[in-house]
Amino acid sequence: MTASAALRRTFAPRGSLRGTVRVPGDKSISHRAIMFSALAVGESRIEGLSDGGDVASTAAAMRAMGARIERGPDGAWTVSGAGVGSLLQPEAALDMGNSGTSTRLLMGLVASHPIRATFVGDASLSRRPMNRVAVPLRRIGARIETSEGGRLPAIVEGIVPALPQSHRMEVASAQVKSALLLAGLNTPGVTEVIEPAPTRDHSERMLSLFGAEIERDGPAIRIRGEAELRPQHVIVPGDPSAAAFLAVAASIVPGSDVTIADVGINPRRTGLYDALKAMGADIAFENPRELSGEPVADLRVRHAALRGVDLPPEAAADMIDEFPILFVAAAFAEGTTRTTGLAELRVKESDRLAAMAEGLAAIGVRVEEGEDGLVVHGSGGEPLSGGGEISARLDHRIAMSFAIAGLHARKAIAIDDMSPVETSFPAFEATLDSLLEKAAA
Ligand code: S3P
Q1: CATH match for 2-25+237-440 among 3.65.10.10, 3.40.50.2300, 3.40.50.720, 3.40.50.150
Q2: 2-25+237-440 shares its CATH topology with 28-235
Q3: What angle is formed at CA 269 by the lines to CA 267 and CA 272, rounded to 5 degrees?
Q4: pLDDT tens-digit map of 302-343
Q5: pLDDT confidence of residue 359
Q6: Which residue in 166, 164, 160, 214 sits closest to 189, CA to CA?
Q7: DSSP for 343-374?
Q8: I need a labelling partner for 428 at 20 to 30 A (CA). Which of 20, 83, 186, 381 fits?
Q9: Helix or strand or coil: residue 213?
Q10: Residue 321 annotated to the active site
Q11: 80 alpha carbon – ligand 1 mean position (Å)
Q12: pTM greater than the 0.90 cutoff
């Protein structure tokens, strides 16, 4: 792996944001579209795939295991697979880059195939816990060796036939759930996964679109292997987790009025928007419709005065990736925002509670870091002092969150490295520029 050079940038106010933009295809859905297409017999077409580095890691891994994956001149992708059970032995280690989703889902997939794969990743990914998938995957008969503390590099040696199991998950994680369902695809009989709390259901929706026998029964999801997947035409909605940065930017910068077209509004992903509305944000989901089994709308967001909220722990799963930017919104609210039940944020691309507490304090926000949440005291809509130098900690969402904070600060905010943004939203700065230029015009 070659680490890319640090990309230090500063962000300062440039007026209001106005206009209509799109965001990259949903990252979660894009990973699944590539994987399931690569497991179907025949050729699938995918429109709107995420152009981020994380999804590129998934595509490279599926190619290394025998799928043909190509981008056409119109930007749509074609993926040809040979069927569940037909994965080929990869010749080299699978480099997962920064992507936890690629790693965990593919560990599940490999676990029920007669192949052996080594998974490696960058410094951030190599610190993240993999036992949450390794332990249940050993129960189906796979041999899994992790590095110290259950981290990468890891070796997965799949087993055929794998044992169908009922898995009671310990953490509410869509990645763990999906890894076990993917393993179930090539396992004879019924694999059951029981969730402690509902998590994003893109795998279930898309597996059903591809023709798998999958059902939900309360907290249990059951899938019948050895599945035959049929190729599909998938249209990936815009990523609500990418749109979140623009929605908060429009909410906090006076005079803003932004529309983000074609954004996924799956209820398991829209917790941030519910929280912002509870804080007084002006957000409308316009023109709601459905694309490839997922609900979609155009998001219109106008500047509004925000007030602090107390977010209950149950709110966490539906906005798990959005806490960094929620804390930025809270920094501009009137009053105090309190969050708890967020221990999972410490094992994302960075320790997001520590990264946000440190960064917010550096730009003049009063913030208290608890064991599993932050308390943020807001400015009441006033610009932040700014002026700090933020460490993005190889975490795209930390980098983008502080870039947005810089748009309403007295002194510019410097971010040590914006390069991780490439993993999920390569056009982040260009998209912001277009909204700021439209307003200036
Ligand atoms: C994801 C699930 C979430 C989320 C991640 C993407 C997925 O992780 O944080 O960015 O695509 O399944 P957990 O399932 O570990 O919470």
Answers
A1: 3.65.10.10
A2: yes
A3: 105
A4: 999 999 999 999 999 999 999 999 999 999 999 999 999 999
A5: 98
A6: 164
A7: GGGGGSSS-HHHHHHHHHHHTT-EEEE-SS-E
A8: 381
A9: strand
A10: yes
A11: 26
A12: yes
